């Protein structure tokens, strides 16, 4: 009978250790970056910017140009966006999700990057 009691105590100790370890690994904060780009034609009163928000609470704004018909401003904005996204990915972040769309002459994209 004493033998079974020792086995039960060992199994209980292992189970408690595994449960505690699983809670410890889940409590780690995820390092992420959320990027939102907003573009519009010059006639719209919408902000033309790229907002980069970091999980530590800091953020930065990268100005974009108004999209002019027949001009190269859309390409210029894309070059700015690609350079910033490349910088984020080169820093060890991976793109996990993105969404975007347009309406009313505005274009909004949102990207979620998570640190590997």
Please give the radius of gyration in angstroms: 24 Å
* Helix residue percentage: 25-40%
* C-alpha termini separation: 50 Å
- In N-to-C order, the SSE pattern is HEEEHEE
Task: Give the percentage of residues in beta strands.
Answer: 35-45%
The low-pLDDT segments are none
Number of helices: 2
Structural class: alpha+beta
Number of strands: 5
Total count of domains: 1
Largest sheet: 5 strands, antiparallel
Q: What is the mean pLDDT?
A: 80
With strands numbered from the N-terminus, the spatial order across the biggest sheet is 3-2-1-5-4
Structure notes:
The chain has helices at 2-26, 73-90, and strands spanning 32-40, 49-54, 59-63, 93-103, 106-115. It is α+β, with helices and mostly antiparallel strands. Helices cover 37% and strands 35% of the residues. It has one domain (32-115). It is rod-shaped and about 85 Å long.
Features:
single chain, 116 residues, alpha+beta, 2 helices
Topology record:
Blueprint: H1 2-26, E1 32-40, E2 49-54, E3 59-63, H2 73-90, E4 93-103, E5 106-115
Antiparallel strand pairs: 1-2, 1-5, 2-3, 4-5
Give a summary of the structure in a few sentences.
With 116 residues, this protein is an alpha+beta fold. The protein has 2 helices and 5 strands; from the N terminus they run αβββαββ. It is rod-shaped, with a radius of gyration of 24 Å.
């Amino acid at each position: 009978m004493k033998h079974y009691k020792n086995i039960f105590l060992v199994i209980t100790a292992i189970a408690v250790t595994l449960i505690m370890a699983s809670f410890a690994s889940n409590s780690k904060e995820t390092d992420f970056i959320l990027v939102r780009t907003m573009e519009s034609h010059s006639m719209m009163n919408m902000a033309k910017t790229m907002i980069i928000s970091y999980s530590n609470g800091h953020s930065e704004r990268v100005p974009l140009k108004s999209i002019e018909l027949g001009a190269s401003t859309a390409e210029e904005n894309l070059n700015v966006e690609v350079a910033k996204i490349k910088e984020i990915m080169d820093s060890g972040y991976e793109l996990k999700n993105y969404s975007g769309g347009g309406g009313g002459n505005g274009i909004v994209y949102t990207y979620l990057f998570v640190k590997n």
